[in-house]
Amino acid sequence: MKNIYSEDAFTGLEAAIVLIAFVVVAAVFSYVVLGAGFFTSQTAQATVHTGVQQASSSMELVGNVYGVKDATNNYLDYVNVTIALTAGGTPIDLSSMVVSYNDNNLGHNSNVMNNSAGLFDCSKAVTGGTNANQEWCIAQKINTVTGTATTGTMLDNNAQIVLMVGLPTTATPNTKFTINLQPAVGAVTPIARTIPGGLTAVQPLY
């Protein structure tokens, strides 16, 4: 008996289903690729912004580093360090800065405390001594925006700040030490020096 039904229509329907499936798969794949691209672009943008912020918030050392000792001690009590912003830098709040200390006599302090009485009180930083007693403070501000030399912890453009960093008893003659200044935002400023073999009341360190 002759088949009165044609299979041509079913063949066309199957082709349409396959075509729709390919379109759906291609759309999903495109969405995934575009999503990954957007995510990568946003990550790269955030990295660039972070890099610019870090680079624009950097400090530099100005002039010499001076070591100071008490007449009765055979180690440096503290050092004076002058810092300023790099050219075109963004102002930095020093109240959030972390100061660390290391030397080759096993002296180590990952967080030299700022003075509990205030960053401008240097009464304890000058005593040096054990790591537990190490403190740092702002001894002087030069060329400040407001012209005030005793208030404000912001390191502004064209300004210089003299820091006083207390040292432990391991800061003896011929000792190599490193002080790292890490602001809340910005690059670390390392200060590496060697204490001379003979100590005087005040000496530049190289």
Question: How does this model look, in words?
Answer:
This protein is an alpha+beta fold and 206 residues long. 24% of the residues lie in helices and 31% in strands. The chain has one helix at 8-56, and strands at 59-61, 65-68, 78-85, 92-93, 98-103, 108-114, 135-142, 154-155, 160-166, 176-182, 189-194, 202-205. The strands form 2 sheets. Strands 1, 2, 3, 5, 6, 7, 9, 10, 11 and 12 form a 10-stranded mixed β-sheet that branches. The protein has a two-stranded antiparallel ribbon with strand order 4-8.
What is the CA–CA distance across the termini? 109 Å
Order of helices and strands: HEEEEEEEEEEEE
Mean pLDDT: 80
The coarse silhouette is elongated
- Characterize the main sheet: 10 strands, mixed
Please tell me how large the radius of gyration is.
Answer: 32 Å
Query: How much strand content do the residues show?
Result: 25-35%
Low-confidence stretches: 52-56
The helicity comes to: 10-25%
Q: How many H/I helical runs?
A: 1
User: Structural class, please?
Assistant: alpha+beta
User: Total number of β-strand segments?
Assistant: 12
